[in-house]
């Protein structure tokens, strides 16, 4: 539809639109509408599905998971449809990913990006995305560390893109770009993994334990 426009203009539109789409804080919106409080004052303060679980509402966590993954996929597919270009789709997907990490609506304090990463990968290179998802499931089942599973899946995603012969190279660059940002955003989790202090999936005291999951953060304020 917009394929006849100059590519720089297309890229600029993809960056702005993708970023704004990625900035939609589904976790914050879902918990507020459900009366579960401000997600940013719960547990780690992260806006992702892991932190939503600390509210005790699995339905809201599922909504958040689907929303965060879906916005990355929608950005990619919409750009591909409108611009007819994988490069434009990769730019839009990368912008949506950045929007989730640094949402303008929340003072640029967002989530860790794993769900958005998977949604984006499946939309732009589904064989590699499915392999990354299988990697997460396998490692999470074996080691019970959500952060380790996410980091490994992200690190292997560029390799999966290469091994499944996904072209053009924009797909490989997008996978590598998101992997680097995921590692940066998980710096605290990496330190806890090295020290053996990272909590495992399904640890007791799910709502009360401020260190549950893979986000880490300030303690949950006491009930009044």
**Percent in helix:** 55-70%
How many strands in all?
A: 0
Major beta sheet, specifics? none
**First-residue to last-residue Cα separation:** 55 Å
Cα-atom radius of gyration: 17 Å
Kindly report the average pLDDT value.
88
- The shape is globular
Give the oligomeric state of the chains in this entry, treating copies of one chain as homo and distinct chains as hetero. single chain
Total domain units? 1
Q: What is the count of DSSP helices, taking H or I runs of 4+ residues? A: 10
How much β-strand is present in the residues?
under 5%
Pattern of helices and strands? HHHHHHHHHH
**Which structural category do the helix and sheet elements fall into?**
mainly alpha
Poorly predicted runs of 5 or more residues: 204-224
Reconstruct the topology from this structure.
Elements: H1 7-22, H2 26-33, H3 49-52, H4 58-83, H5 86-101, H6 114-124, H7 126-143, H8 146-163, H9 169-185, H10 187-195
Helix pairs in contact: 1-4, 1-5, 2-4, 4-5, 4-6, 5-6, 5-9, 6-7, 6-9, 7-8, 8-9
Quick overview of this protein structure:
With 224 residues, this protein is an all-alpha fold. 64% of the residues lie in helices and 0% in strands.
């Amino acid at each position: 539809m917009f394929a006849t426009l100059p590519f720089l203009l297309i890229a600029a539109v993809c960056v702005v639109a993708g970023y704004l789409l990625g900035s939609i804080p589904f976790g914050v919106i879902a918990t507020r509408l459900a009366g579960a409080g401000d997600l940013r004052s719960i547990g780690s303060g992260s806006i992702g599905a892991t932190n939503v679980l600390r509210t005790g509402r699995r339905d809201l966590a599922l909504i958040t998971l689907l929303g965060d993954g879906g916005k990355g996929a929608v950005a990619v597919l919409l750009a591909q449809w409108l611009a007819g270009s994988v490069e434009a789709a990769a730019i839009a997907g990368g912008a949506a990913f950045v929007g989730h990490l640094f949402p303008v609506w929340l003072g640029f304090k967002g989530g860790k990006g794993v769900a958005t990463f998977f949604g984006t990968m499946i939309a732009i290179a589904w064989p590699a995305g499915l392999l990354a998802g299988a990697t997460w499931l396998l490692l999470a089942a074996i080691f019970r560390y959500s952060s380790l599973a996410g980091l490994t899946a992200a690190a292997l995603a560029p390799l999966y893109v290469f091994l499944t012969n996904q072209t053009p190279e924009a797909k490989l660059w997008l996978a590598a770009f998101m992997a680097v940002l995921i590692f940066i955003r998980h710096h605290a989790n990496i330190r806890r993994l090295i020290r053996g202090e990272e909590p495992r999936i399904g640890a007791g005291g799910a709502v009360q334990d401020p260190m549950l999951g893979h986000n880490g953060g300030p303690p949950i304020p006491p009930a009044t």
